[in-house]
Amino acid sequence: EISTSSLPQSESSNSFFLYVANEGVNNTDGADTVIRLGSPGVNGSSITSVLVGEGFHGASGLAENSTNEILYISGDDNAIFSQTTGDITSSIFTSLNNPNALYYNSQDNTLYIAEASGNEISQIDLSQAQPNKISIATNYDTPQAVVVNEANNHLYFTDFSGSVFQIDLNTANLPVDANSSNTATVLASDVVKRTEGGLVIYDDKLYVSDYQEGKVISVDISNGSTNEILDFSDFKARGLALSPEGASDNNGNPINPKLYISGYDTNEIIEYDLITKTAYLFANNSNLIGENSNNPALMNGPFGLLTSSKDYPYFLIDTSSSSSSNYQLISGVDYINR
Predict the structure, then answer these.
(1) DSSP states of 175-209
(2) 284 partner at 20 to 30 Å CA-CA among 74, 300, 303, 334?
(3) What does each of the 338 residues of the chain score in pLDDT, given as a tens digit?
């Protein structure tokens, strides 16, 4: 087992940001927010942290349409919100049931959603003016994460069973139903003791976070074989994100692909080099600094993670006088009612 206190400090000098959704362990600083982290740089010891979004209830899921520069956020508001680099904020879908995780499929402009309390995986087609929700998988035990292999249109998800499930979206009779004979394929059973988010694909492997035991495990998508990648003694792994494909450092030099892991209980981010297989402490609240002499935006129950080269502006969700289907979204320059 690894203690995070024994890890070397990351010296990454990335050309991208790491966005963090703070679900909030308690209602203190940093809860219910989305923040943007820079990188420490060579010989650096601090990371610039900026508040991007606030006013959520249990922010958890993050996804991005990088082509159109749209950031998507979900959480316990049972809605999905968006913000653009042009500072246009929207509530794009409501009436969900604890959407813990999001995945944006760039091939068909679709959002896939892990609805934890709804016990289902669902999707919405963002190309529609008024998107409808379509069920993909129903009656699964508190789904926590979802990802699509866009090369072959295979969807993967996890739930509290600890297994990893697979659906061939090209041929499946949707929705699959855990309580019927038409179920999702079990790619790997009992992979983790209890996952609470975190599922990404890199190099024909899935990476899965084990919140209960503080582990990260890989699953071969061709045969379901598993391998323990990391085992922490004092860190409960939750959200996962990969560095952008073909990412470079601030000098334009290619970097090794990295896996970022959020520590929900300890407010830490671990960086794992997938080539050298080395773990680093990337961020905690003690090494965050603010921008332009402002106080840093803190972590509080960091859940969903997203890497992006885009700089999304600040916005606020005001639910104090709005119903779940009529949020008031406040950007830096205007008010939008949906």
Answers:
(1) SEETTSSS--EEEESS-SS---S-EEEETTEEEEE
(2) 74
(3) 999 999 999 999 999 999 999 998 766 667 899 999 999 877 777 999 999 999 999 999 999 999 999 999 999 989 999 999 999 999 989 889 999 999 999 999 999 999 999 999 999 999 998 889 999 999 999 999 999 999 999 999 999 999 999 999 999 999 999 999 999 999 999 998 878 889 999 999 999 999 999 999 999 999 999 999 999 999 999 999 999 999 999 889 999 999 999 999 999 999 999 999 999 999 999 999 998 778 899 999 999 999 999 999 999 987 554 443 444 444 443 323 22
Q: Are strands 47-54 and 315-318 parallel, antiparallel or unpaired?
A: parallel
Q: Where is 136: in which H helix or E strand?
A: strand 133-138
Other C-beta atoms lying within 10 Å of the C-beta of residue 3? 10
Instruction: Tell me how far apart the alpha carbons of residues 72 and 92 are, in angstroms, rounded to a whole number.
Output: 9
Contacts of 33 (CB under 8 A, 6+ apart): 22, 51, 52, 53, 54, 56, 59, 297, 300
233 secondary structure, DSSP code: S
Phi, psi of 290, deg, nearest 5: -85, 175
Place of tokens 């919100």: 81
Whose structure tokens read 């009612």? 337
Q: Helix-strand-coil percent breakdown of the chain, rounded to 5? A: 0, 50, 50
